[in-house]
Amino acid sequence: MSSETEEKRSKAQPNGCERAFVQGNKIKWFWAPAFFGFWLLLYVTISIPACHRLPRPLTIQDEETHPDQFIAERAEKNLRELVSLGPRVVGSRQNEMAALKMLSQKMQKIRSGTANDIEVDVQVASGSYVHWSMVNMYQSIQNIVVKISPKNTNSTTYLLVNSHYDSVPAGPGAGDDGSMVATMMEVLRVLAKSDKPLKNPVVFLFNGAEENPLQASHAFITQHKWAKYCKALINLDSCGNGGREILFQSGPNHPWLMKNYRRAIKHPYASTMGEELFQHNFIPSDTDFRIFRDHGSVPGLDMAYTYNGFVYHTRHDKAEIFPRGSFQHTGDNLLALVRQIANSPEIENSAKYAKGHTIYFDVMGWFLVFYTETEGVILNVIVSLVSIGICGYAFKLMSVNSGIKLEKILKKVGHTLLVQILSVVVGAILPVLLGLFMDAVHLPLSWFSNSWLILGLYFTTFFFGLAIVPALYFHWTKRDKLPIGQRVQLLLHCHCLLLSVLTLIFTICGIRSVFVLMLSCLFYTVGLIINIATKLHTKDVAWVIPHIVCTVPPFVFFAYFSHGFFTTFIPMFGRFGENLNPDLAVAVFSVAVGFLCCGFIIPVLQLFNKSKTIICGLMGITLLCFIIAMTPIGFPYRPETNVQRFAVLHTKRTFHDAQNKVRRQESGYFIMPQDRRTYTVKNAVINMTLAQRIGSDCDKEINCGLPLYNQRWHKTRKNSLWIPASEPVLGENVPTVLLLSKNTVSPTKIRYEMQLSGPNHMALFIQPLNGAKMMDWSFHQAPLRLSFEPPYFIYFSWGVNGDPLKFWLELEKPNGNWNSSTLELGLGGHWNHHKELITPDFKKFLDSFPHYVDATPWPASFESRIF
Length: 867
Ligand SMILES: [Zn+2]
Known about the structure:
The chain is α+β, with helices and mostly antiparallel strands. It folds into 3 domains: 20-49 and 374-631, no CATH class; 60-364, 3-Layer(aba) Sandwich (Aminopeptidase); 644-866, no CATH class. Helix content is 43%, strand content 21%. The chain contains 24 helices and 23 strands. The strands form 4 sheets. It has a 15-stranded mixed sheet that branches. It has a 4-stranded antiparallel sheet with strand order 16-17-21-19, with no helix packed on it. A hairpin with a 2-residue loop joins strand 16 and strand 17. The chain is globular. Bound molecules: zinc ion. One of its GO terms (biological process) is proteolysis.
């Protein structure tokens, strides 16, 4: 049957309803906007609201009618009290005294009048561990540890709950992590008052040095008297402010934790995909979870806020913008979870239940789906094979109904499969090219404030590529004997085959997140079975109805899931550094998400009249959004809400020669750009035109002559900017290395005893010179044992006690020539929470930044010395 006669056949018997939609054997073209609108409406009215839905917060007035429940208003009060202390940097009075006092007083209040035993312990600890290539060393940092246990228990199985009350110098740390501290305090209050007994004790760790980074959790798990009894962990952190806390890491290898999470949780929000992304270092953050896992082998659940990451680690991370509903969300969950896990039989013998990974995800925040990795493998394989089988059966039916030989149909399948693969490839290339183009024309991050631009720029481009290839194929093979309705079905079946094969491949590779592809196949196959059973598959257009109905649930779910994903990631592009082209990354994300959400939707466009015009219309939307991106709407930043980040260190640098004479001394602003748009500020600030790249110093000076103390900054240090300026005012406690003694151990070996004193954040870089080799030292042994590349990097910070640190180094020179110098020390000092040290010049410089910039100012020093 030619397409002409096919058209006649369809025209012959249209009923009223069909007449409105169908013209010939295609859908009338003007239904295309409604088709797009339908999916957009589902996204906007179901997926997005589900992503942001919070429970009704309970107030103190509700307390009587809601005994034994978490009261959001109380948590909110806790947070406001904590945040009113100001930024709580390790070593500052606010952190070491004020916050400690406030928390201790609250704990004493909770202690009085409870039927449980409550013990409060203030831990002051010193220690060190190796973090990437740096020795992270701390002295006298503090933790407040509170243990709540049933009366007269002798249980030695504790549940650990952790959050941190310290903050970065930049901001008040309301979201990160005051909100979780406040929630923990309220949970503790409810537990203390409750007459529902706990079976095992719960240790609440109010962690005093997380931003430092991760020192206090190390101090607790390696040194505290209760650490060895902690058999499971709930870690609570934040890279945002508000929203729902997501469970993004579990275990590892403890499925019983997820089982208990599912049982207990009131408002589930969890994702295996988050876990895989996090564990493969796609997310530029780290949490205490890793420390507890690696240094204490404590399995656990890691949860965090990710919403509104724009304010994370800035001065806008305020308590006022933290929604009360978020407290209720986390509080309800945490209270139930603490009870569930502390009372579970598994915690008492967790090693016995330590087997296998899990796959978990919540469905729209309604309920949690959870199964083991083995079950996942079985499920993936069965669904993929069944999908392939049903598609094969559909091909056979197609042959029977059309009278075309099966071999010919299979040949068409082969062609269509190639076309579909090509369309995915073209669809992927186009957004990537656009991402490169946006960056090249100096328009990166245009979607930073108006994220819908991502839909208009990258998704539409992907959809265009995905649709135009089959459209051209159908156009060029118009004379095909199969009617268009059958050919579009063939295209969809081929997409399903493609997904099934991908599911199998990724399952073999051990990627747990592949469950999303499996779900896609599953729902498509259900639609296909309905079509076959009702014989609708023989019709030109009617088969679309079951197909669309079965595509709605996965679409709504994937859109929900993806919305959360984008909400989390978009703000992160403001701190991924200057080296990453954010538009390229977003283009790749858009391809992945678009493929997942709309892979079975876009091919339906071929069924419309004027399909090529409709598909080209998508490019019209891209063009329109490109024009919008050039207007102020596409300017990434907004003051207060979507700020551009900079760290500005007012630094004095002094370099000594071998005779201990100053060979170079200068002062200036050292600026670390944190996103791709440094030039926006460079063009706006007069002084910035004087900025030089630090790059050439990296070849000449130890650690580029920079006082960096965070490992994370080292990757981008070559791009950092230096602007000559007046001398900073440094605190009285300037970093100093004193040589206490220098002794010859053997003709080829020498030992230095030294003492380091200075402000509460210091960085020490050690570079052996002239063939000398570091043989031993008093620092952590790992860098020597693992042969790290010098310069060795010791980060040293202190909390309550700033006593000098004594250390020794033992170096060897095989030639025994001690006349030349042996070692160079680079010494960085930081006064990152001393507002009083900000000079008028520095203040003027900071004020010259545009109002959408959030610049963290701090005085710093760097000195190099040769021994
Ligand atoms: Zn944090």
